[in-house]
Amino acid sequence: MRFFNKQAIDSLDLKDIQKAVAHAYSLVLDNAFHMPDRMHVPHKENTLLLMPCFSNDHFATKLVSVFPGAAASGLPVVNGILVLADNHTGAPLAIMDGAALTAQRTGAVGGLAVACLAPKTVHTAGIIGAGVQGISQAQFLLFNRKITTLWVADLHETAARAMIETLKKSHPNVNFQVAKTARQLVDACQVVICATTSTQPVFEADPEDVKGKTFISIGSFTPEMKELPDAVIAAADAVYVDTPFAAKESGDICIPLKNRVISKDKIQPFAPVTRQPVATGHDKTWFFKSVGMALFDLTVASAVYRLGKEKNLGQVLQI
Protein backbone atom coordinates (compact mmCIF):
# COMPACT_ATOMS: atom_id res chain seq x y z
CA MET A 1 0.00 0.00 0.00
CA ARG A 2 1.15 3.54 -0.75
CA PHE A 3 0.65 6.85 0.98
CA PHE A 4 0.36 9.93 -1.25
CA ASN A 5 0.80 13.29 0.46
CA LYS A 6 0.08 16.73 -0.97
CA GLN A 7 3.50 17.02 -2.60
CA ALA A 8 3.08 13.72 -4.45
CA ILE A 9 -0.46 14.52 -5.62
CA ASP A 10 0.45 18.04 -6.73
CA SER A 11 3.44 16.75 -8.74
CA LEU A 12 1.21 14.99 -11.28
CA ASP A 13 0.44 16.63 -14.62
CA LEU A 14 -2.77 18.63 -14.80
CA LYS A 15 -3.73 16.85 -18.02
CA ASP A 16 -3.74 13.50 -16.21
CA ILE A 17 -5.95 14.83 -13.40
CA GLN A 18 -8.38 16.39 -15.88
CA LYS A 19 -8.43 13.21 -17.95
CA ALA A 20 -9.46 11.33 -14.80
CA VAL A 21 -12.36 13.76 -14.24
CA ALA A 22 -13.44 13.29 -17.86
CA HIS A 23 -13.40 9.54 -17.23
CA ALA A 24 -15.78 10.07 -14.30
CA TYR A 25 -18.28 11.69 -16.65
CA SER A 26 -17.90 8.71 -19.01
CA LEU A 27 -18.78 6.38 -16.16
CA VAL A 28 -21.86 8.52 -15.50
CA LEU A 29 -22.97 8.22 -19.13
CA ASP A 30 -22.32 4.46 -19.15
CA ASN A 31 -23.91 3.98 -15.71
CA ALA A 32 -20.78 2.06 -14.73
CA PHE A 33 -20.44 3.11 -11.10
CA HIS A 34 -22.19 2.85 -7.75
CA MET A 35 -22.24 5.96 -5.56
CA PRO A 36 -24.20 5.74 -2.29
CA ASP A 37 -25.48 8.96 -0.79
CA ARG A 38 -22.96 10.97 1.17
CA MET A 39 -23.23 10.18 4.87
CA HIS A 40 -23.36 13.00 7.43
CA VAL A 41 -22.43 12.06 11.01
CA PRO A 42 -22.97 15.03 13.36
CA HIS A 43 -21.36 15.14 16.79
CA LYS A 44 -21.97 18.26 18.86
CA GLU A 45 -20.93 21.17 16.62
CA ASN A 46 -18.72 18.96 14.44
CA THR A 47 -19.42 16.80 11.40
CA LEU A 48 -17.90 13.74 9.80
CA LEU A 49 -18.66 13.13 6.13
CA LEU A 50 -18.18 9.75 4.47
CA MET A 51 -18.19 9.70 0.67
CA PRO A 52 -17.96 6.16 -0.81
CA CYS A 53 -18.00 5.20 -4.48
CA PHE A 54 -17.41 2.02 -6.52
CA SER A 55 -16.24 1.37 -10.08
CA ASN A 56 -15.34 -1.91 -11.78
CA ASP A 57 -11.72 -1.87 -10.62
CA HIS A 58 -11.58 0.22 -7.46
CA PHE A 59 -13.64 1.63 -4.65
CA ALA A 60 -12.81 4.63 -2.49
CA THR A 61 -14.07 6.34 0.61
CA LYS A 62 -13.21 9.91 1.46
CA LEU A 63 -13.55 10.85 5.10
CA VAL A 64 -13.92 14.55 5.73
CA SER A 65 -14.02 16.16 9.16
CA VAL A 66 -15.50 19.63 9.66
CA PHE A 67 -14.52 21.08 13.04
CA PRO A 68 -15.39 24.81 13.17
CA GLY A 69 -13.61 25.27 16.51
CA ALA A 70 -10.26 24.29 15.00
CA ALA A 71 -9.88 27.80 13.57
CA ALA A 72 -9.43 29.18 17.09
CA SER A 73 -6.29 27.08 17.36
CA GLY A 74 -5.00 28.20 14.00
CA LEU A 75 -5.77 24.84 12.41
CA PRO A 76 -7.79 24.00 9.27
CA VAL A 77 -11.54 23.67 9.82
CA VAL A 78 -11.75 20.94 7.17
CA ASN A 79 -9.48 17.90 7.05
CA GLY A 80 -9.75 14.74 5.02
CA ILE A 81 -8.25 11.47 3.98
CA LEU A 82 -9.11 9.06 1.16
CA VAL A 83 -8.70 5.30 1.15
CA LEU A 84 -8.51 3.51 -2.21
CA ALA A 85 -9.07 -0.24 -2.45
CA ASP A 86 -9.23 -3.03 -5.01
CA ASN A 87 -12.84 -3.80 -5.94
CA HIS A 88 -12.09 -7.46 -6.69
CA THR A 89 -10.35 -8.42 -3.46
CA GLY A 90 -11.19 -5.56 -1.10
CA ALA A 91 -7.50 -5.08 -0.38
CA PRO A 92 -6.48 -1.49 0.49
CA LEU A 93 -4.19 0.02 -2.12
CA ALA A 94 -3.52 3.59 -1.05
CA ILE A 95 -4.14 6.33 1.48
CA MET A 96 -4.18 9.92 0.21
CA ASP A 97 -4.30 13.46 1.52
CA GLY A 98 -8.01 14.17 1.06
CA ALA A 99 -7.66 17.96 0.97
CA ALA A 100 -4.99 17.87 -1.74
CA LEU A 101 -6.95 15.38 -3.81
CA THR A 102 -10.12 17.47 -3.48
CA ALA A 103 -8.32 20.64 -4.55
CA GLN A 104 -6.93 18.97 -7.67
CA ARG A 105 -10.09 17.17 -8.74
CA THR A 106 -12.28 20.24 -8.18
CA GLY A 107 -9.83 22.38 -10.14
CA ALA A 108 -10.04 19.84 -12.95
CA VAL A 109 -13.84 19.88 -12.83
CA GLY A 110 -13.75 23.63 -13.45
CA GLY A 111 -11.01 23.25 -16.03
CA LEU A 112 -12.99 20.71 -18.03
CA ALA A 113 -15.99 23.06 -17.99
CA VAL A 114 -13.76 25.80 -19.39
CA ALA A 115 -12.47 23.42 -22.07
CA CYS A 116 -15.99 22.44 -23.15
CA LEU A 117 -17.85 25.75 -22.84
CA ALA A 118 -15.53 28.75 -23.17
CA PRO A 119 -14.62 29.87 -26.71
CA LYS A 120 -11.05 28.92 -27.58
CA THR A 121 -10.21 32.55 -28.32
CA VAL A 122 -10.98 33.94 -24.85
CA HIS A 123 -8.05 35.83 -23.40
CA THR A 124 -9.40 37.52 -20.27
CA ALA A 125 -10.63 35.65 -17.21
CA GLY A 126 -11.16 36.16 -13.52
CA ILE A 127 -11.23 34.22 -10.27
CA ILE A 128 -13.43 35.40 -7.40
CA GLY A 129 -12.11 33.89 -4.18
CA ALA A 130 -8.38 33.63 -3.49
CA GLY A 131 -8.33 30.56 -1.28
CA VAL A 132 -6.90 27.12 -1.99
CA GLN A 133 -9.62 26.37 -4.53
CA GLY A 134 -9.15 29.73 -6.23
CA ILE A 135 -5.53 28.83 -6.97
CA SER A 136 -6.49 25.37 -8.24
CA GLN A 137 -9.20 26.81 -10.49
CA ALA A 138 -6.74 29.33 -11.89
CA GLN A 139 -4.14 26.65 -12.65
CA PHE A 140 -6.59 24.51 -14.62
CA LEU A 141 -8.07 27.57 -16.33
CA LEU A 142 -4.61 28.60 -17.54
CA PHE A 143 -3.96 25.02 -18.64
CA ASN A 144 -7.05 25.01 -20.86
CA ARG A 145 -7.01 28.51 -22.36
CA LYS A 146 -4.35 31.02 -23.43
CA ILE A 147 -5.30 33.73 -20.98
CA THR A 148 -3.30 36.92 -21.33
CA THR A 149 -4.90 38.81 -18.43
CA LEU A 150 -6.17 37.14 -15.26
CA TRP A 151 -8.07 39.14 -12.66
CA VAL A 152 -8.37 38.08 -9.02
CA ALA A 153 -10.91 39.39 -6.53
CA ASP A 154 -11.21 38.63 -2.84
CA LEU A 155 -12.69 40.30 0.22
CA HIS A 156 -9.11 40.57 1.48
CA GLU A 157 -6.77 42.23 -1.01
CA THR A 158 -3.74 40.66 0.65
CA ALA A 159 -5.13 37.21 -0.18
CA ALA A 160 -5.61 38.18 -3.82
CA ARG A 161 -2.05 39.48 -4.04
CA ALA A 162 -0.67 36.36 -2.36
CA MET A 163 -2.52 34.17 -4.86
CA ILE A 164 -1.09 36.19 -7.74
CA GLU A 165 2.45 35.83 -6.41
CA THR A 166 1.96 32.06 -6.29
CA LEU A 167 0.64 31.90 -9.86
CA LYS A 168 3.38 34.16 -11.23
CA LYS A 169 5.96 31.48 -10.49
CA SER A 170 4.44 29.09 -13.02
CA HIS A 171 2.87 31.66 -15.39
CA PRO A 172 5.32 34.57 -15.68
CA ASN A 173 3.88 35.76 -19.01
CA VAL A 174 0.34 36.31 -17.73
CA ASN A 175 -0.73 39.82 -16.80
CA PHE A 176 -2.27 39.51 -13.33
CA GLN A 177 -4.59 42.18 -11.94
CA VAL A 178 -6.19 42.65 -8.53
CA ALA A 179 -9.82 43.74 -8.91
CA LYS A 180 -11.12 46.28 -6.44
CA THR A 181 -14.59 44.71 -6.67
CA ALA A 182 -16.08 41.53 -8.07
CA ARG A 183 -18.18 43.60 -10.46
CA GLN A 184 -15.04 45.20 -11.90
CA LEU A 185 -13.69 41.71 -12.53
CA VAL A 186 -16.90 40.54 -14.23
CA ASP A 187 -16.98 43.58 -16.52
CA ALA A 188 -13.37 42.95 -17.59
CA CYS A 189 -13.53 39.19 -18.15
CA GLN A 190 -14.90 36.71 -20.67
CA VAL A 191 -14.69 33.79 -18.22
CA VAL A 192 -15.61 34.17 -14.53
CA ILE A 193 -14.97 31.46 -11.94
CA CYS A 194 -16.37 31.78 -8.41
CA ALA A 195 -14.77 29.84 -5.56
CA THR A 196 -16.29 31.33 -2.42
CA THR A 197 -18.62 30.28 0.40
CA SER A 198 -20.71 33.44 0.14
CA THR A 199 -24.37 33.40 1.15
CA GLN A 200 -25.06 36.52 -0.91
CA PRO A 201 -24.23 37.17 -4.59
CA VAL A 202 -20.72 38.55 -4.80
CA PHE A 203 -21.75 41.18 -7.36
CA GLU A 204 -24.90 42.79 -8.74
CA ALA A 205 -25.84 42.85 -12.42
CA ASP A 206 -28.65 42.80 -14.93
CA PRO A 207 -28.94 40.01 -17.53
CA GLU A 208 -27.61 42.31 -20.27
CA ASP A 209 -24.43 42.89 -18.23
CA VAL A 210 -23.43 39.23 -18.24
CA LYS A 211 -24.37 38.06 -21.74
CA GLY A 212 -21.64 36.47 -23.82
CA LYS A 213 -19.67 35.27 -20.80
CA THR A 214 -18.93 31.86 -19.28
CA PHE A 215 -19.63 31.54 -15.56
CA ILE A 216 -18.42 28.68 -13.40
CA SER A 217 -19.51 28.36 -9.78
CA ILE A 218 -17.51 26.03 -7.58
CA GLY A 219 -17.95 27.37 -4.06
CA SER A 220 -21.62 27.23 -3.11
CA PHE A 221 -22.42 23.72 -1.88
CA THR A 222 -25.35 24.28 0.50
CA PRO A 223 -28.87 25.65 -0.13
CA GLU A 224 -27.94 28.77 1.86
CA MET A 225 -24.87 29.64 -0.25
CA LYS A 226 -25.26 31.74 -3.38
CA GLU A 227 -22.33 33.21 -5.29
CA LEU A 228 -23.97 34.61 -8.40
CA PRO A 229 -26.90 36.99 -8.94
CA ASP A 230 -30.07 35.73 -10.62
CA ALA A 231 -29.05 37.71 -13.70
CA VAL A 232 -26.48 35.03 -14.59
CA ILE A 233 -28.83 32.07 -14.50
CA ALA A 234 -31.58 34.09 -16.22
CA ALA A 235 -29.28 35.17 -19.07
CA ALA A 236 -27.65 31.77 -19.59
CA ASP A 237 -28.38 29.91 -22.82
CA ALA A 238 -28.02 26.75 -20.74
CA VAL A 239 -27.28 25.85 -17.13
CA TYR A 240 -25.10 22.77 -16.68
CA VAL A 241 -24.62 20.84 -13.44
CA ASP A 242 -22.04 18.17 -12.65
CA THR A 243 -24.63 16.17 -10.68
CA PRO A 244 -28.42 16.40 -10.34
CA PHE A 245 -27.92 17.01 -6.61
CA ALA A 246 -26.76 20.53 -7.48
CA ALA A 247 -30.39 21.56 -7.97
CA LYS A 248 -31.01 20.72 -4.32
CA GLU A 249 -27.63 21.32 -2.69
CA SER A 250 -26.59 24.70 -4.11
CA GLY A 251 -28.38 27.98 -3.52
CA ASP A 252 -27.16 29.15 -6.93
CA ILE A 253 -29.61 26.68 -8.45
CA CYS A 254 -32.30 25.90 -5.87
CA ILE A 255 -33.05 29.52 -4.94
CA PRO A 256 -33.72 30.69 -8.54
CA LEU A 257 -35.83 27.55 -9.05
CA LYS A 258 -37.83 28.25 -5.92
CA ASN A 259 -38.35 31.89 -6.93
CA ARG A 260 -39.29 30.83 -10.47
CA VAL A 261 -36.48 32.82 -12.05
CA ILE A 262 -35.95 29.76 -14.25
CA SER A 263 -37.70 26.44 -14.81
CA LYS A 264 -36.30 22.95 -14.26
CA ASP A 265 -36.00 22.27 -17.98
CA LYS A 266 -33.18 24.80 -18.20
CA ILE A 267 -31.01 22.68 -15.88
CA GLN A 268 -29.02 20.14 -17.89
CA PRO A 269 -26.44 17.47 -16.98
CA PHE A 270 -22.91 18.31 -18.03
CA ALA A 271 -21.76 14.75 -18.74
CA PRO A 272 -23.17 14.60 -22.33
CA VAL A 273 -21.25 17.78 -23.21
CA THR A 274 -17.97 15.94 -22.63
CA ARG A 275 -18.83 13.62 -25.54
CA GLN A 276 -20.86 15.96 -27.74
CA PRO A 277 -19.47 19.49 -27.32
CA VAL A 278 -21.84 22.42 -27.63
CA ALA A 279 -21.34 25.14 -30.22
CA THR A 280 -19.35 27.76 -28.33
CA GLY A 281 -19.19 31.39 -29.36
CA HIS A 282 -18.84 34.86 -27.94
CA ASP A 283 -22.60 35.32 -28.29
CA LYS A 284 -23.27 32.41 -25.92
CA THR A 285 -23.80 32.69 -22.18
CA TRP A 286 -23.02 29.58 -20.17
CA PHE A 287 -23.42 28.76 -16.50
CA PHE A 288 -21.77 25.67 -15.04
CA LYS A 289 -22.43 24.70 -11.43
CA SER A 290 -20.44 22.07 -9.54
CA VAL A 291 -21.12 20.66 -6.10
CA GLY A 292 -18.77 17.71 -6.59
CA MET A 293 -19.32 14.00 -6.13
CA ALA A 294 -17.46 11.01 -4.76
CA LEU A 295 -17.03 9.61 -8.28
CA PHE A 296 -14.57 12.42 -9.06
CA ASP A 297 -12.57 11.45 -5.98
CA LEU A 298 -12.55 7.82 -7.06
CA THR A 299 -11.39 8.32 -10.65
CA VAL A 300 -8.73 10.86 -9.68
CA ALA A 301 -7.51 8.68 -6.81
CA SER A 302 -7.28 5.73 -9.22
CA ALA A 303 -5.19 7.85 -11.58
CA VAL A 304 -2.95 9.08 -8.75
CA TYR A 305 -2.36 5.48 -7.66
CA ARG A 306 -1.60 4.22 -11.18
CA LEU A 307 0.65 7.12 -12.13
CA GLY A 308 2.25 7.16 -8.72
CA LYS A 309 3.33 3.55 -9.08
CA GLU A 310 4.71 4.27 -12.57
CA LYS A 311 6.66 7.30 -11.34
CA ASN A 312 7.56 5.75 -7.99
CA LEU A 313 5.78 8.48 -6.08
CA GLY A 314 4.45 8.23 -2.56
CA GLN A 315 5.60 6.23 0.40
CA VAL A 316 5.27 2.45 0.49
CA LEU A 317 3.56 1.25 3.66
CA GLN A 318 3.59 -2.23 5.12
CA ILE A 319 0.39 -3.30 6.87
- List the secondary-structure elements in sequence, H or E: EHHEEEEEHEHEHEHEHEHEHHEEHE
Number of strands: 15
Mean pLDDT score: 94
Beta-strand residue percentage: 15-25%
Radius of gyration: 19 Å
Q: Give the CATH topology of the largest domain.
A: Rossmann fold
Overall 3D shape: globular
Distance between the termini: 8 Å
Taken together, the total number of domains comes to: 2
Oligomer: single chain
The number of distinct helices, counting runs of at least 4 residues, comes to: 11
Structural class assignment: alpha/beta
Largest sheet: 8 strands, parallel
CATH class of the largest domain: Alpha Beta
Describe this structure in words.
The protein has 319 residues and is α/β, with parallel strands linked by helices. The protein is 36% helix and 24% strand. It folds into 2 domains: 122 residues, 2-Layer Sandwich (ornithine cyclodeaminase, domain 1); 183 residues, NAD(P)-binding Rossmann-like Domain (Rossmann fold, 3-Layer(aba) Sandwich), CATH 3.40.50.720. The chain has an 8-stranded parallel sheet with strand order 9-8-7-10-11-14-12-13, with helices on both faces. The chain is globular and about 60 Å long. The mean pLDDT is 94.
